Amino acid sequence: MRTHRLVAALVGAALALTTAACGETVTSNGPPTIAIVAKAFQRQFWQAVKQGAEQEAARQNVRAPFEGPATEADVEGQIRMLTNVLARRPAAIGFAALDPQAAAPLLEQAQQRDIPVNAFDSGVDSDLPLTTAATDNNAAAEAARRMAAAIGGRGTVALVVHDAASRADRRDGFVEWMRADAPGVQLLETWYGGGDPTTSAEITESLLAAHPDLAGIYGSNDAIRSGVILGAITQNPVGMGEQTVAAAVKAIRARSYRRSSTPASSGTTGRTSTARRSRPSSTSNAHRGTDHWPGKPSPATLCGVEPVARARLFGRFELCLGQTRVPPLESGRAESLLAYLLLHRSAPTPRQRVAFLLWPDSTEAQARTNLRHLLHTLRRRLPDADRYLDVTARTIGWRADAPCRLDVEEFEALVDAADEARLRQAVALYTGDLLEGSYDDWLRVERERLRHRQIDALGRLAALCEQRGDLAAGIEFAERQRRLDPFREETYRRLVHWYVARGDRARAVLTYHVCSSTLQRELGVRPSAETEAVYRRLVHAAGPAGSAPALVGRDRELARLDAVWRSAETGHGGLVLVSGEAGVGKTRLVEEFRRRCAAHGPVIADARCYPSLAYAPVVAWLRAPALRARAARLPAAWRTELARLLPEVLAESPDLPPPVPLPEADQRRRLFEAVAATVVDGGRPTLLVVDDVQHADRETCRLLHYLLRGRPDARLLVVATARREDVQDDHPVHELLTDLRAAGRCTQIDLDRLDRAETAVLAERLGARLSPADAGRLHEETEGNPLFVVEALRGGWTPGRPLSPRVQAVIEARLAQLGPQARQLAGLAAAVGREFSTDVLAAAAEADADALADGLDELWRRQIIREREGSSTYDFTHDRIRQVAFQGVGPIRRRRLHARIAAALERIHGDDPGPVSLQIATHLDRAGEVGRAVEWYVRAADAAQVLHASRQAADVLGRALELLGGLPASAERDARELDVRTALLAPLVVVTTYGSPRMWDNQRRALELSRAHGVEPAPRLLRSLAVSALVRSEFAEATEFGRQLRRVAERDGDRVSLVESAYVLGIAAFWQAGLQTARREFELAVQRYRPADHPAHVLHYGNDPKVVCQSRLANTLWFLGLPDEARAARDAALAWAAEVGHRYSRSVAVTFAALLALDMGDEEELRKQVAELTVIGSEPVSEHVVAAFTGYLTVLDGDPDVGLVPIRAAVEHTRGGGDAPGHHAVMLRLLLAACQAAGDDAAAAAVAERMLAMGGTARLWAPTARRVLARA
């Protein structure tokens, strides 16, 4: 089998036909410069690329300076390097993009300056020629000619282009030339990538898999949408560097020929001038009306000519100059200055006035100095700044001859037009407040004015919709209006009427409840008489609910919270844990603190933790209106990642590519970065509130750790509440708190009960006027627990009346005062077990709509439930009330309620039940519906695995097995159990190990079930059994399972399982010293491996088999006496490990590269690999391995007493076999070498004898051990 690599059929001919001469040529003074910007610089892979580039540059007599950022995560660093390269105007550029979208504007500049760009390290892995046409029909024909030459004029070629409608000339030009001039080439059907690089890559991988004899692939600028990439080259790293330079030289020569053969005057004929004439210009009709804001309507241009600049001031600042999107400016003050100039383009502004507006608190001299520095920064950051800015000694302004399309101006013009269509366009343009995140004084008045215009526009749209009878649309606009202006009662009244008109009285009641609570909480007032009258007509209620309980005795705690918030506002974020017993007032304290913070304008999001799927509180935060607005303005890549948690993101943006499964570390990193971009990168400080954090899942805790430690300058404060007794030492929250405390980023506030005086004040605030003696009696009976005090007084406690010693009895007495419908509804709501929506209650309740609305209102008025701010849900005012309400429901009715709730959730979330699958499973479990509960537990495990929440997946599958264990034996029951146990294999690997008793019990039972029912074991089971056998050093058993896996893979044509079988058989042979067999299997695994299968290998089996097998092949070749081949295999394994970026696989390759260096006596290479192991860390590698290798280097450095300690500890730790096959033998080999290096011959001889006596996996080093004994 050949190894697929994608070598570029260069597109130099296609793109060299573009015009606008700027760069160097081969005829300029001195050798031309080909600047190469790689993804990184230090790593071995990129150093090899550099070597190849320098070799080819010497052959071609050109200069090829090579640079790259420190790490492949430093996108901004790479963009800065590319910016500097463009400023030097080289003859050509070689570029390996870390982020193609971020690089696109700069590559467009290169195109405009006629600087050819060659993309390398494209990520497509095949030996098929690839051409990329970037302009018109003629360029596509030239690409076809080069393709035909590259494949010898015959073979099958596929087309992957943008879409069916646009750029048809690039498709048709290629097809027409091939049909006319290359009869030996067969063209497959055309595939469309839609301009999305990920989609195009997936299509390419599918084509390679479906057509193994494919000769070539033609693509039209899907790699980077600007279409300025000349070639795509993926090879071995040295060859990659060579071909990048060679391709650039060809492009330079083609451009030089074009310039010499094309006169400056018009009218020249020939291919070059034809391409010049047909290429769309920046002002051609082809571009008019297409460069509107993504996902928004395209209003008519307000300028007389096509604008040369576009600016967005609503929400995040964005600026496009010509066809170039300006990267985010580092200075918020620079954005503020540009915004001011854009909003005041009618005339220049005196510099003195601008300086004062931006620095009102500085002296005039200092302000003007600051302005000079700021203008200098803008000139560096803005391409051709003087084309847009008019700066004189006295004034500053936006140039009159540089027209600009400004979203604010378009918004105001559309609002003024007043018809519904234009109003819809206007409100769509308003993606956030004016320059959100900037707090300069000059902005405030203008920001409020525009905000009110948006509020009014939404109100007008709602009224227009009502007039034509479209209440659904009217409600949508009115709800948006309510979110922007939560104090406008008219909007609430309108919504109440419309919900009633649509027959949704429960939602109408909720709307009033939100209105009342918001006014009471934020302004301390009740709704107006008009609003109250609407409410009374709606529910015939006796009166509104009372206010929330007063906050008493917490001044000191509020002062601490205020101090921490001030620190967070300045970029010193952290977490505050408010802890205490149930009912002590944790939530009430945080609510008051939240209210105080809201007055300063931060972004606030609330969540409450329940036992649920991973990231549940994060989902609640992200659905807060302010964060949803931020998320909507993120780049597409981040919104795609957020769709893992928020499925509605894809529904709202149909053109957004869906997220693809990724290895755990990669997926977590991308998801965390996307959440961070939403939560902490929006300009304003952010307050995240989370109740009952003791129920937080492991993944949420990891995310909080990332936000607070990985973003140390974030203006973020997380305030959490927890019951003191519920945060156990083994809980992930405890680990999070411990780490944050060590970093000085955790503040803990413990709440105590109220004293006698505070209890008396609370009673007075609740309307009870008590004598000192009665207040003392109340304190004594309630022990100062605020919840107990409040519930006692609400339940009618009076002096002299004995009070139950239990708060539960007090709550029971208060619930008994409810009407029958409200009591039944309280029981149903309590059975939900968490916050609940009116939709779920309506679907599960045994009541009509009117009774439901009345019952909800009674529960709200009596403060049994409250609405959840920012969502259309209710929750109990305290968990103790929920518990008591549920305990009042009899067991038979409980089961019926759970069944109805499960059915309601299933019906409401039918399109996407994944996020609520665990809730459905739990309710079915409690309803006694075992079969359906098992089905939903499996679905919940699948949903958890998608998020790599392996521990949770293992737990819910364990519950499913418990339920199945209680059913009578039957074939159907056994089949279900086999499915569950097979599904359990993947999460168990992460939660335990292949050698754990729990894993072995699960495998053994699954194998028994398969054999008992004559079912072929599933490939995942066979592979799991084989690896477990390897870990136990039972190699004959591992070999048998590996052979079974191969038979199944060959029968089913399963390429992934075939490669995994070669991996298993190779490892088994290696540790039995069957070196020829091991070599054959490892080489087979490498040959059959396909890069397109990498995600499947990593997701299902935890490593990349090409990395592991290639690295182990290196050790095998050394033992076979082939040192040069061993080095080559090692380097290939390390290069591929760097390419795929899978941390665990890389750790394996580096570990065995270090072992190879030890065996070969190559100290320099050994030190290099041990340094890599140290960088990788102990998470993917056993910490004993890292410590042992580090200890060996300490011995080499002359300190054996210190160095031998960790090696001997590792030997003892692995005595039982270790976490991987051969682990103990490797540690003994290391100890043997260390004793030799220390000069302790006796100790070395003892280790050698031990290895020979051990046999087994130590047989690989038997010759080494014998040589040591022979010298002893």
From TrEMBL:
Residues 1-23 form the signal peptide. It comes from Pseudonocardia thermophila. This is Transcriptional activator domain-containing protein. Keywords: ATP-binding, Nucleotide-binding, Signal. GO terms for biological process: regulation of DNA-templated transcription. The keyword Signal applies. Residues 406-539 form the Bacterial transcriptional activator domain. Residues 259-273 have a biased composition (Low complexity). One of its GO terms (cellular component) is cytoplasm. Transmembrane segments: none annotated. It comes from the Bacteria. Residues 257-299 are annotated as: Disordered. InterPro entries: AAA_16 (IPR041664), BTAD (IPR005158), P-loop_NTPase (IPR027417), Peripla_BP_I (IPR028082), SBP_2_dom (IPR025997), Sig_transdc_resp-reg_C-effctor (IPR016032), TPR-like_helical_dom_sf (IPR011990), WH-like_DNA-bd_sf (IPR036388). SMART domains: BTAD. GO terms for molecular function: adenylate cyclase activity; ATP binding; DNA binding.
